[in-house]
Design goal:
The protein is mostly helical and about 180 residues long. Helix content is about 65%, strand content about 0%. The chain is built from eleven helices and no strands. Helix 6 packs antiparallel against helix 7 and helix 10 packs across helix 11. The longest helix is centred in the first third of the chain and has 21 residues. It is globular, with a radius of gyration of 15 Å.
């Protein structure tokens, strides 16, 4: 935990601890491994405060999808951040690493752990934005509905701000929000 704390500001670490608290509660409620949820939550923002150059270096070094170079920290800290977690923290559990990768974008197919971390990051106790109370209530009653709620509201936020939308976020929307 100290190695994680050393990588981030005090404010970011408070957020991480809030995500861990919520992730463990959701894991217990929905039958996910609380230990994996704890580890993934503690490491989910491990690389969030790294420089762009560090991410670019890692993308090139690991020959990751070159399209990643067209994005920024909002995307990198999950997808590329999982590689920092693997290399620097020695976490090899692919389920934990995948939950870290998709914690901001979601994915069309998400494991229970992926859903727990995705939602916990959105509704952790330190978050305060319009709709967070409703999102918290959904998280405690229907995890899939909470995934849909978060995805829909994130997309609305990005559209309102006219920000680029990562393709995985659209895939998440199409799978979790669109009624088929």
């Amino acid at each position: 935990m100290q190695q994680v704390q050393m990588q981030m500001s005090e404010k970011r670490f408070r957020h991480v601890l809030g995500v861990e608290e919520m992730a463990v509660a959701l894991a217990k409620k929905y039958g996910c491994c609380p230990n994996k949820a704890s580890i993934a939550a503690l490491a989910h923002d491990y690389a969030k405060e790294r420089s762009d150059d560090a991410f670019i270096f890692m993308i090139k070094k690991l020959k990751m999808d070159p399209d990643l170079l067209n994005w920024d920290n909002a995307i990198w800290h999950g997808i590329v951040g999982a590689e920092f977690v693997r290399q620097e923290l020695g976490i090899e559990d692919e389920e934990i690493l995948q939950a870290i990768r998709v914690h901001t974008t979601g994915a069309a197919k998400m494991s229970l752990l992926d859903q727990v971390i995705y939602v916990a990051d959105y509704v952790e106790p330190n978050r305060d934005f319009p709709g967070v109370q409703e999102a918290r209530q959904l998280a405690l009653t229907n995890l899939a509905a909470a995934v849909a709620y978060e995805t829909k509201h994130t997309l609305q936020f990005l559209l309102k701000k006219e920000l680029p939308i990562y393709p995985k976020t659209i895939e998440t929307y199409n799978q979790w929000v669109v009624k088929k």
